[in-house]
Prior knowledge:
The protein is an alpha/beta fold. Helices cover 43% and strands 12% of the residues. The chain has 20 helices and 12 strands.
Amino acid sequence: MIVYTMLVFAVFRGLFLIEALIIHPELSFKGWALSFIHGIRLDISASSYIVALPFLVWLMTGFIHRDWLHKIFHFVFYVFTSVAVLTGFINLIVYHVWGTLFNARALAFATQPKEMLASLTSVQLIIAPLIIIVLIVINYKLCRSYCFPENYEHHPKHSILRFLIIACIPIGIRGGLQQIPINESASYYSDEAHLNLAATNPLWYLLNSIYKSGDIKRNEYQFRAAGEAKKICSQLKSDGGDSLQFFKSPRPNIVMIVLESWTSDIIEPLGGDSNITPFFTSFCQEGILFSNIYASGRRTDQMFPSILSGFPAQPNHSIIRYSDKTSKLPFFSQYLGKQGYETAFLYGGVLEFANMRSYLLQGGFKTIIGKEAFASADMNSKWGAHDGVVLNKELEVINGLKTPFFSMILTLSTHEPFEVPMKSKIAGKSESNKFRNAAAYTDESLKEFFSKAKQQAWYSNTVFVLVADHGHLLPRNHEYADPACYRIPLLIAGGGINPEFKGTKYEAIGAQNDIPSTLLKQLGMSDTAFIYSNNLLSKTRENHAYLNFDDGFGYVDNSGSWMYNFTNKKFIPAFSKKGISTSDSSFIKGSSYLQTFYEQFVGL
Length: 604
């Protein structure tokens, strides 16, 4: 039975390597066969977990000779191997969409299956269940044919053998007799991230990810004494007293448009593809374009605390899902509400997704509008209302607000599966071109929105903040740990900007979570509560950006960038500056930053 489960893992490892080659044909697959060898220890550990309970039942069959007990033995093993098969298959889907292994963060979306399935195309929604059924049937037939003997002979020697096998299972689970139980690093052998991921057993990784995600009572990211880390972290924040001032008035209206998945790779002035977002390019002449801004996280649920609370994304967790913790965070929207701003939030999708509604209510938004406000004819087949419809609704909402107001809108058309009500602008049906076409549609919708907005009386005293919720692997098929996946546009423009600053580009390296501090300083308000937010326009700021992913973190500053993997405690060579080490000043700063804010996350 252990041999069978090992073969199951080997098959899915092969499929994973084939998929990675299809997605990233430019990658080197030299040494790919070694992933099967280096994956053996985790495969044995995962297999031992699978057979532990069935073997206990099997042990009982040596003393209780009943057919029903044998059937229980068969059923339990079949169920557990089916879980392994499903995990391997789902892992392929998650890697295709997210570029990472199937983990607790992905599993959390299973609590909202409608939204989870919205990332798949209609064809995928038909094919995936069929494949699952086929896999379950094949697993059943193989288990029945090769894992269970037809005749059971009972002999004292067999009982001794059973005890010996059972006694070996705990050793298999912990990966051997060494002092420290096995972990993911046992499968890491290459500088190529995809080969390490291929060698990592998907079931073992998922179970370990679930275990780690449940631990929110201790800070496992400790690099130095807490006091020293906090002191280093505090030095990264500028007082912002010498900040440039580009708002025309002390209390302008503010409209924040958060663009789903808008990576810098589709923004021509940021080095992205040309003619995908021509309106956004032209609108850059009406404000300040920040050209080196990075999202701290990879998913939309990590964006809200970053943009509104200035709180960076956490490994293995998303603070927005913990209402007791988010209630203790500062909120930019709440600050504005106390200053007389009327507040509103608009989204064409489901507000319950990722605990969004709870967070927005805590943030003091007085008007919160979601999917239920739109007609069924205005919906795409998956996530919600099309961006053009939502932006038109935004105009209605704004026109009903008293000035000054703060309105926030989240788009969704550039989310998988990229369904938009517009004729394709780019030929081809590849995922990359579907993404480009969806971005082009949103850009056209923005053009129409601003054409109408400029005719409104409130426009001349309104500042628009256009920023992405996170980057994307597409359209250039970046690897998951590539810092380029995090680089996003940030444009602050509109009638409320001083004319002298329009059409400028600000190249300071910054993060998405720097937005609250930057805006508060423009409003002449204190940003001291936003301790991880740093005014982008301060002349004395220390340029930096923290990048989060579940298996590690990264950092970008004026000296370059690096990505560090928690599993093997090594830098990822392909995405790290040459000569980087843990004694480098940028690593000391980045690790102190992570240690400090994660300590606060645990303590909230």
